[in-house]
Amino acid sequence: MKKMILAVTGVICMILAGCQNNAAIPEGTETQKETVSEQSEEADSEGLSGTENFLTAEQAGPYGKITISLPDGWKYSIYPTDSDELRTGIYGIHFYPEEAAEGYIELSYVDAFGVCGTGLAVEETTIAGSPVNIGTYDGHEYWDFISFQGEKEGIVATTFTVEDWWDEYGSQVLEILDTVSFDRKVKEGGAYIYGRESEAEVIGLQFSLKNISRTGATLVFDQYDIDTVSGELTYGDDFVIETKKEGKWTAAQIVLEGDYGFHDIAYTIATENTTESELNWEWLYGELPPGEYRIGKNVMDFRGSGDYDQYMVYACFILN
């Protein structure tokens, strides 16, 4: 679907995914689930009143490492960058009472955060030494999101299907969030960064990346409006990588010696759907060092031999 952008308090923001609250306790091989009985240490009890045991949950990503402490009776799951289990962020942690049948708090890094809908009340306060905005829709008993500001800007907590256990555990959720730390010096992996150059509205196409490493990534073409296409959307094997230096894009260094070329082939981009393909750039650019980059791809709206329009789209990303 087309990426929607909101301006909230002077920041370009993305829609809070779904603007809804229903989720089961997630299962899957990408998660790590722990209880205090499996890992218990003497507590630093600040912010965790009435407990002698705690569990540390942490997840690092391209913008820094998120860490929280959980008291006895709580479980967590961790999700690296590009995990499909996250609802709002690009990497983070789910935590929930051990006895809960469903529902969780998602604590994640969101590269741009915004909200949608009516009936929203926002309270400003301080949690974990940082200013936060607490948002609640329609006056229900639990909050919907807490967005951290200041040094922890980008960290967002959201609630999903917590109604059945909020009365008993809601106060502990705030105590847990009061232990949040965010270390921007501990970074790992890469992340796609949305920009206007990623989108060609004239053909209803958005270009993005996932599973980014130093040697490759998954290309994602999202065609969201069939009425904009006059022929068949296609792309080839050709690509270019540029790096940002002193605020300007310059060609990344090619490590391959001698001449090179790309196969003359056309791959179809499905209309009103998502098309993915794998790209390995190591043969041409080697392992990219940490920095800010963009990949350029040519996309054709092909109607017939000699009858087509060509567009260049870029997907920006960072590497650590």
Question: Can you walk through the features of this model?
Answer:
By secondary structure, this protein is mainly beta. The radius of gyration is 22 Å and the shape is elongated. It has helices at about 165-175, 280-285; strands at about 5-10, 10-15, 40, 55-60, 65-70, 75-80, 90-95, 105-110, 120-125, 130-135, 145-150, 155-160, 180-185, 190-195, 200, 205-210, 215-225, 230-235, 240-245, 250, 265-270, 275-280, 290-305, 305-320. The chain has 2 domains: about 5-185, no CATH class; about 190-320, Immunoglobulin-like.
Number of domains: 2
What would the average pLDDT be, to the nearest integer? 86
Strand order of the largest sheet: 6-7-8-12-11-10-9
Q: How do the SSEs run, as a string of H and E? A: EEEEEEEEEEEEHEEEEEEEEEEHEE
Basic shape: elongated
Largest sheet: 7 strands, antiparallel
The percent range for helix content is under 10%
Low-confidence stretches: 1-22, 27-47
State the main characteristics:
seven-stranded antiparallel β-sheet, mainly beta, Immunoglobulin-like, 24 strands, elongated, 2 helices, disordered N terminus, 320 residues
Short description:
With 320 residues, this protein is mainly beta. 5% of the residues lie in helices and 46% in strands. Strand 7 and strand 8 form a beta hairpin.
